[in-house]
Known about the structure:
The protein is mainly alpha-helical.
Amino acid sequence: MASSVPSTSGLQRAFYTLGTLTLITAVLYFAQVVLVPLALAVLLAFVLTMPASWLEQHGLHRVVSVLIAAALGFTILGAVFSVAALEIRSLPTTINDPQYKDNVKRIMEPLRGLIKQIEELEKAGLHMGDTAPPPGKHDEVIPVIVQGDKQGPSVLSWLPSLARPMLDLAAQTFLVVVLTIFIMIQRENLRDRLIRLVGKRHLPGTTRALDDAAHRVSRYLLLQTGTNAMVGFGVTAGLFLIGVPYALLWGMLATALRFVPYVGIWVAAALPFALSLVMFGWLSALLVLAVFLALELVIANLVEPLLFGHGTGVAPMMLLVVAAFWAWLWGPLGLLLSTPLTVCLVVIGKYVPPLRFFDVLLGNAPPLGPSDRYYQRLLAGDQDEATELVQEQMTNRPPEEVYDQVLLPALVRARADRAREEVNAEEERQVVRTTRELLEDVLAHMGPVGPTKAGAAAGNGAAARPAVRVLGCPAGGREDELALRMLGQLLQPMGAELEIVPPRRLEAKVRSAADGPVVVCIAVLPPGRLSHAVALCRRVRSAAHDAKILVGRWGDREEVEKLRAQLLKAGADDVGVSLLQTRRQILPPEEAQRAVAAAAGQLARG
């Protein structure tokens, strides 16, 4: 009965989270008239605060600095939109020019031939659908595409329908300007109110989230605007040289649409490509594509990596997903705002625990660590990918880190999951078996054992005496024995020798040690099995009072301090929580260096 409580509470939390997200999405959708201008104002404030702060630092009053920065920023935006509006206004006249009618017919000729072939197949009895236009009607379609309907409504009849959207646009523009100015003036007050709203208990996390969001979003917007402007300038210059009309309009469109990740630049390229195809033919259209492709390759692969470093912190695939979400939610403006808004969500999820799922779902950090991936691949029976993962880790990290942070956690996790009956005995054996094969067949040749000192020492007779003799005893089972094998590989380069002894033979082995005192290392991986280690410590201490007894409670950094006193009382000299720490306890750094030097001298003399 008790085991059903966690699953029930987890299900309730999942429904609560789903309901909360649904409610937030509904609010964002139905309140977009207010929230879209607010989001625009906040993002513009991020950008304009930097020049305003610079002016304020040089002696101007806060309000004067904000007004100057806002006036400069909105003047630039107004000029850009005015030029774009003038270009768009004259674009239909160029497109409907009769001189391009023959070009359209020539381009549409392959399509007309395809339609005729479909009609011939239909006459032959093959069912190709009933939507093809009747024969002889294809030529009538093309003039309508180019010239439009001559009997369409006049421009004056459109004015009443345009008045309402123009008034709404003017009102929202005014609201954005006013909100931006007030946010910039009252930024400290708004920050403190947000901290108070979140709660003083989360003060450190909220402070870091606000600072990180402000820095990351401001930096992203400034750098992205700069790189997009470079692309727009290049597009304008390239299309002007090719002779494509309205090159300035296409350059501004490329600058704006490139805020949409990955696909925006190609949406911007589609219109000048189609226009040049209609007006000048395939050669000009292909040159247009070449301009866009060359600029995107240079900016995306050379300029942006230098400027952005690690990027926005959002996973590349998720940028497309959230772009589609914000476009559905807020339309074209949501599409342009998708990346900065998503960056804010990732930062919030990074520092606010209840919203951590945003960081996991949208962030670019690996969702699983190396040890989790290794363990998951072993459970899935994918030994090849698990081996590749460990080999990759061994090429980038010291072997003791790979053993301590990848292999050992997998063994500990297998034992813990088996104790909770989340994996069966065969799956546990699979984890141990694969890890043992890695140690024997792969890691022994990649890891700390070089061109083997062990083999060279074996041929040197008396010169092969190890610097330290270690008796390793697994207290709990297969995982403990495998962990001792890892420790033995880490000790070999220092001339130390580790011999694995079963618990029943440990006392006799200690008593019969002919080379003087030995180091006894008892491995007991969590969870549990501690009573076995305590009993072994007492038996060894009673058999050899001068033996050095170490306990390897590897992978248990949280509970080890509670267990240390019990183990020390049973006769242990020290407790290690990692293979590296136990290696230092067996051979301190100074002794290890002397042992390595001595082993090298023996090999040189041999």
